[in-house]
Amino acid sequence: MAELKKDPIDEFYLQTAEMLNCKPDNIAFTYNATDAFSRALSSIHLKEGDLILTTDDDYISNHIAFISLKKRMGVRIKRMENDINGDINVDAFALSIKKDRPAIVSVSHIPTNTGKVQDVASIGAICNKEGIYFIVDACQSVGQFPIDVHKIKCDFLSATGRKFLRGPRGTGFLYISDRIIDEKLAPLFLDMRGGDWIENEKYKLYPGARRYEYWEFNYANVLGLKEAIKYGNDLGWDKIWAYNQLLLKSFRDALMDVPGLKIYDRGNQLSNIITWQIDGVSLEETKVILDNNNVYYSIASIDSALIDFKKKGVEWAVRISPHYFNTVEEGLQLADILKSSI
Fold first, then answer.
1. N or C: which end of the chain has fewer CB within 10 A?
2. Same domain, 63 and 106
3. What DSSP character marks residue 321?
């Protein structure tokens, strides 16, 4: 069946490349964003004493992977603090990159626990100039707005299919730059998809990004993700972003009119993730209000945003993620539900 569907399956690489402004040979299918990120991280030859430079706001799984590497290999971790408004301090990043010569720089484009959009393009330009490997976790940003990997100048970009792309769960992808391919980097654990076994103790790498894939695929999910990406490509990511920004403003304005409600997202550029609490209303009480009124939400807890939430002095926050299928009126409805329930 996979052979019969070869052309639609191959279209996944074409559609993803169109979305990211790259070539199909730069794209590998993965099973989720963490899977993609781990494959990228494992392909960089780290040794004891090497530095991983990241932020306070990288995704929890990425932080845990860094700590695991520190325990197992003796690498060092440095987390850059943000400006007072919550943004990345680009000048401090530049100074650290030049002074500390990290082996890897890793930044989450949009952290899972807050809606700010991090300035990955400025960090990418510095890394590119200094020859430092740069990994971008785009789990929350792909599907929200246009992504151009050449403008970001990243070596790797990891993403999931199930969030703002609206694809199937159990799907993701990894962008791998020409630089990485030309340097013949590959994930630590290859299989027969990534290389050909040509002698007893020798294999030959697959020439393109698919060396980062495994042979066993859920091809139905690949087709599902392809359709989701094609849907966004056909709508136009600029158009999606423009409408999402309208939604973001309307939802934030409506929520800020709720007595006692505090929004925790800070930064010069915000995305369609809004995190909040209402003073004096417990987590369980908040969940009951939202559940009883059929509001879709998730809870961001301190164990997934340890540094950020400690700074904010909170243990949890409600996270809502309006997207282009929502309406301005729904933001007003949400505010009315909260006003009438507290």
1. N
2. yes
3. -
